[in-house]
Amino acid sequence: MTQKKLHPSVLKFKEFVKNNPHIIQEVRKGKATWQELYEDWYLLGEDDGRWETLGAETENESKKNSESKGDFMTNILEAIKKMDANQMQSHLNNLSQAVGAVQGLLAQFQGTAGGGTPVKPPEAPKNPFSFRQD
């Protein structure tokens, strides 16, 4: 199998990327392309400050994500601590009564069909088994 021999600068760039994995994350997130990064690396060199800021941005984003998750859980726990059990019971009772009223209203409308006459369910025979006596 024949392999293409890469230019020495490309090999150096690949080594640079291996030593700085945060650059790979930048490409995967779509913030930069390999071509852009290679050109910047070729023109600016490995010691440029840009390479340090790329890693810092990735770390800051991960810290923000973990902090926002922690803040959400903290807010939920604080809200639960501040709840008054009696007040919650009162709200649940009111909600239950409202649902019951809606169900009654729906049952009332379903019970009437057309001209306002209530629909009666078909009556079952009084004796489902008719035995004849001989």
UniProtKB/TrEMBL annotation:
The lineage of its organism: Bacteria, Bacillati, Bacillota, Bacilli, Bacillales. This is YlbD family protein. Residues 110-134 are annotated as: Disordered. InterPro entries: YlbD_coat.
